[in-house]
From TrEMBL:
SUPFAM superfamilies for the chain: PP2C-like
Pfam families (alphabetical): PP2C (PF00481)
Identification of the protein by name: Serine/threonine protein phosphatase PrpC
InterPro entries xrefs: PP2C, PPM-type-like_dom_sf, PPM-type_phosphatase-like_dom
Cross-referenced Gene3D superfamilies: PPM-type phosphatase domain
PROSITE patterns, sorted: PPM_2
PANTHER family xref list: PROTEIN PHOSPHATASE
Residue span(s) of domain PPM-type phosphatase: 282-544
UniProt organism field: Endozoicomonas lisbonensis
Length: 544
């Protein structure tokens, strides 16, 4: 794959020279082989000094024409600095190349490295990572063009290309796929368990009469109290659920805008919780703009088919996309409108005989990356992106792909809640390590380049530090009967003020009273707003 840098950009590495044979072949063409020092120029390993022969020619010319001495000195100085920078880039690239594998390598600490040393280093730290064919990669604007989130940005293009390689790694065996699926399911359940334990401690503090000071804790308690009250009020809840879709008026929200003049800085916004039914997927959708000036969420509920050698496979899809940054609404809408195109392409890649777990796992990972990489932020709004929580129902299986801090859980007929995704926060240790590995850093507010999520689609302003690869979980439904099973998905506007078990309890009790999915979703959005959620709220409740 040939990647052309944009005008004014440094040359971008076009291929990974990871094969030992390539370096050994290179050593044949240099007289100092194999001890010649490596450098990385225009994306390729080379040996020797930058401008070596041209520098010698200039020195000879300066001997006979002294007036050229200043020019020659400047040129030789520049060549020396370029050589040193490219040698260090070669060392850094070798380290990144192996760091990005699944092994734990021994780091190169030298500022320069010889061909022989590089060959031995690669042999000692073999990468066993496989990637999708490079011809199938979607190149993000940070690499494909002269794209900058800010004029002063000067991203490391070698690291950008390394990060792109990381995005397109694939699973090649069923055993590795199953191990990863189990790991992610365990992580989601552990997060659910810890959240429930923390909330139980909070309830005990409240019952003991202790004052709850933290705003975040008070919101959790308020949501629980209001949801319990609503469930216990038979008349109120029955009136609400008589409507299949509609709008519930909320209090006006007083939004304070800073003004340079002395005009009244207070603006009043009418707020409502809107809810409706998506018949194609038997989903109820609830929306609330909340305390934000605009709605940055998007919801997708649909069905599509995939062609395999064994015939068509119908897939039911529900998804929640939560945009962030100035232009977040454009990013979430883009993801909603483009994710199915990339899913179909990846699921049908290679003309599969059928959709097995390896095929589906890779398709979900790569389709999210494709969607994010194909997004170009709107003019003047470079710092935006979106989360994505997408669930595919394929036969008896639910496939959950989560990117960012939206969430999904499964509710069975008895009211048991099983969380199906893990919120990806920058402050969580494993996400923090991944961000730092990709050249990013977490600021004192727990954010990555201003974003409060560890992973997203289209967030090019972080220059690859936030991966676009979702965490994937598979859950098999009972084949004999799915009556009473519900899937609940929501953005962090809901789950900032309520944990999965509390939301699940409300959904279960509401469903027992024959409430519609639309009514439940709308009521959850309203409760989140009333519990002081500071974000947009979107909820999808789907019967399985």
């Amino acid at each position: 794959m040939m990647i052309q840098p944009g005008t004014g950009s440094p040359a971008v590495r076009q291929e990974f020279a990871e094969d030992v044979a390539e370096l050994q072949e290179l050593s044949k063409w240099v007289s100092e082989s194999p001890e010649a020092s490596l450098r990385l120029e225009d994306g390729h390993f080379k040996t020797g000094e930058v401008g070596k022969w041209r520098g010698r020619a200039l020195s000879v010319a300066a001997f006979f024409m002294p007036f050229l001495r200043n020019y020659v000195d400047e040129a030789l100085h520049r060549y020396s600095h370029e050589t040193e920078a490219q040698q260090q880039a070669a060392v850094r690239h070798l380290n990144n190349m192996v760091l990005n594998s699944d092994n734990k390598p021994t780091a190169l600490t030298e500022r320069t490295v010889s061909v022989a040393r590089a060959v031995q280093f690669i042999k000692d730290n073999q990468s066993n990572r496989s990637t999708a064919p490079k011809s199938s990669w979607v190149v993000p604007p940070t690499i494909a063009g002269d794209w900058r989130a800010s004029p002063e940005d000067n991203p490391d293009l070698v690291t950008l290309q390394d990060n792109l390689e990381l995005e397109y790694r694939v699973y090649t065996s069923d055993s590795d796929t199953q191990k990863k699926l189990e790991t992610e399911q365990l992580a989601a359940e552990q997060q659910q368990k810890k959240s429930a334990e923390d909330f139980d401690k909070l309830l005990k503090k409240q019952s003991s009469g202790e004052t709850i000071k933290k705003f975040e804790d008070r919101r959790l308690l308020d949501f629980k109290a209001m949801s319990d009250s609503l469930i216990s009020d038979q008349t109120s809840i029955n009136e609400l659920y008589q409507q299949q879709e509609g709008s519930v008026s909320l209090d006006q929200y007083r939004h304070v805008e800073l003004r340079e003049d002395d005009a009244d800085p207070v603006t009043l916004y009418d707020r409502s919780s809107d809810f409706h039914t998506e018949a194609e997927t038997d989903s109820g959708v609830g929306h609330c703009t909340g305390r934000r000036k605009s709605m940055d969420d998007a919801v997708l509920c649909t069905r599509f088919t995939v062609e395999t050698q064994s015939g068509e496979v119908e897939i039911k899809l529900t998804g929640v996309f939560d945009g962030h940054g100035d232009g977040g609404d454009i990013a979430s809408e883009f993801a909603k409108n483009n994710i199915i195109h990339h899913l179909k392409k990846r699921l049908e890649a290679g003309n599969p005989e059928s959709l097995d777990d390896v095929q589906i796992m890779n398709a979900l990972k790569l389709a999210f990356v494709d969607t994010g990489n194909s997004f170009t932020p709107p003019e003047g709004k470079p710092k935006c992106g979106t989360t994505g929580n997408v669930v595919l129902q394929i036969g008896d299986d639910l496939w959950i792909a989560n990117l960012g801090d939206s969430r999904a859980f499964l509710l069975d007929p008895d009211g048991k809640v099983v969380q199906l995704s893990e919120d990806a926060k920058p402050t969580d240790e494993r996400y923090k390590k991944a961000i730092e590995k990709r050249g990013g850093e977490i600021d004192y507010k727990g954010r990555v380049s201003g974003a409060a999520v560890a992973r997203d689609m289209g967030g090019h302003f972080a220059y690859g530090a936030m991966s676009g690869r979702p965490k994937v979980i598979k859950r098999t439904l009972p084949a004999e009967s799915r009556e009473g099973f519900r899937l609940v998905q929501g953005c962090d506007g809901l789950f900032d003020v309520a944990n999965s078990d509390v939301v699940g309890g409300f959904v279960h009790q509401s469903a027992k009273r024959q409430a519609s999915n639309a009514g439940i979703a709308g009521q959850l959005a309203e409760l989140a707003y009333k519990a002081e959620s500071m974000d947009n709220v979107s909820v999808v409740v789907t019967s399985l």
